[in-house]
Structure formats: structure tokens, C-alpha cells
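Before a computer can learn anything about folding, someone has to put a protein's shape into writing. The outcome of that step, for a single protein, is printed below:
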Amino acid sequence: MDKSKTWQETLDLLGEDEILKRISRYVPPGQIDDDTAQIKGSNKELLINTDVFVDGIHFSQETTEPIDIGWRVVAANVSDLIASGLDELIGITVALITPPKTKWSWVEGVYEGMNAALENYGGIILGGDCSKGDQKILSVTAIGSLGKLRIHRSHAVPGDHLIVSGPHGLSRLGLALLLKEPLIKEQQINKVLKEQAMLAHKKPKPSVEILRALEECKPKGIPWRAGGSDSSDGLIAAIESICNSSKCKALINKDFLPKADYWPKGSHWDDWCINGGEDFEMVLCLPPEWAFECIKTIPCFKHIGKIEEGTPSISWSDNHKKIEVNKYKHF
């Protein structure tokens, strides 16, 4: 396809048949020739997740190229599946809503990004739907098989250690850099940290390999039980969801906050770390023996607190002051 001739084309001029014809090159032959997708069954249970991404809320032309949007929508769904115990990603379905004057080049870029992410994680585009609307919206459903460890928000118990799989706040910093927020202009940010933050925001990479390593390092005699979530809505929001589902409370050590190297000091930066969102890291509650082994064998994991009996809440371990949850409001 001659991109020099197509990049200005809009969807209202192309029409549905031509749009589907062009999208079909991203999916297996015949996969979208019908209103349903056929996938091979297995003896394993399936994990299914749906996320909706809205222009002006989850992405914008100011900060996100179409190819990065495509990558991010897949990564966000995969992150949820990983944090539930994913074995293998089977594929995704995509519902696309756009204004009729949307350029084909935008749609093509999004599908290129989704395709690149699927080449990394496995799975295929199983199909979907498209329609016109007043703004760009992507609804992605991901389907995967469940492995031997079912991670669930309700599986935490008092005595568990709270660990996370990586630094937090990077995506929020990356967004601030892209938007040239005033705080960033006043603050000297290390060059390495800048690059890490921009990449974390544009191309997040939740890790299936970390989940495999977690399974491999489980000590013998420890049950296959893990409470957990991903931190897509923020670290404290993830911990709150675990506490609410498991009906327990969490104590967090302020000195152990999962900050990236060269992370600036200050209450504002602490808040970005715990409430920034879109970090797509694993937040786990494990029996102490498993948590110790995990931290010893998987360098990215860090111990940040513990789970105790009590009314669902989150507090600092030194003064037991409750931590305010400042999570993203969907409505």
C-alpha cells in the first residue's frame, strides 16, 4: 500500500468494507469474515478482561502517537491478565469508534501498535467491530488461559508480605514531561530518569516472565495462593482493592516506597509514586517464605509492607496514619 497516497484518507470516504479489508491484514486469514471468532479450546480455564480507552482521557494527540496507543491498549489488558495468573495470551477483540473524518493513517498506526505488542506477548487479533461516533474510543477484550497460580484480590491473608514488581510513578512523570507541566520546568530531572519515564508512559511492558519466575521460586510446602492486582490505577489504589476484597488492612513502610533511581525527593513526588497510575506493575501479597524467596531471586521485586487483621484500610507503618487514596475517577 502506498502510504504517501493513503495517509490523508478519512474513514467516511473509505467505507466499512474497505476499512475491514485493510484491518484484515493484521489478523489471520478469514478471522473477521464472520461476526464471531473461533478459537481453539483447551482443558485450562480462561481469563477474560475488557478495557475501554477514550480520546482525551486515556490518550491524546498531544502525548501519544497512534502506534503507542495500539501498544498501550494491549499492554493494559495483558497487565490485568498477568496479575490474575496468565499462562498464555490467546488473543484480543477490538471495538473501534471514531469520527468519520478520522484519517486512515491514525487507524493504521493503532493497529500497527497492537500488532507489535501481540508479537511481543503472543496471541492474535480475533476480530471486533467498528462504528462512527463523536470521539475516538477503543474497547479491547483480551482472552488468555489460566496458569497454575490464580492470583486474586481476595486471596490476601493476615501475615502476608506486600511486594511490588517494580518502581512506581514513572508513567506519571512521563506524562508530565510530555505535557511540559510547570513542576518539571522548575525541577532538575536526571537524564536517565527522563528516558525511563517517557518509555514507561509511551510503551509500558508488563512482564509475563516475572510471573513465570514467581511461580518457579515458590518454596515447597507453600500453598498456591497469592493475593494481588496490577497497579494500573495507582499503587495505593491497587492495595486498597486487595484490602477491600480480602477484608484486611495494609501497613506500608514509607522508607520502602518503590521509587526509581534518581527519583526526586518531596511529598509531591511521593504522591506520584503511590498515586500516579498506569505503572502496570504487579502488587502481590504472599506468605513470608515465598516473598523472601521472590525478592532474593527476582531483583525487580521489593518488599513495601505487610497485611494485618482489621477493617480494610492502608496506613503508614511508623505512625499508623491512614494513607489517602487518590485514584483515578472513571466518572
About this structure: The chain has two domains: 3-146, 151-316. The first strand starts at residue 46 and ends at 54. The first helix runs from residue 3 to 6.
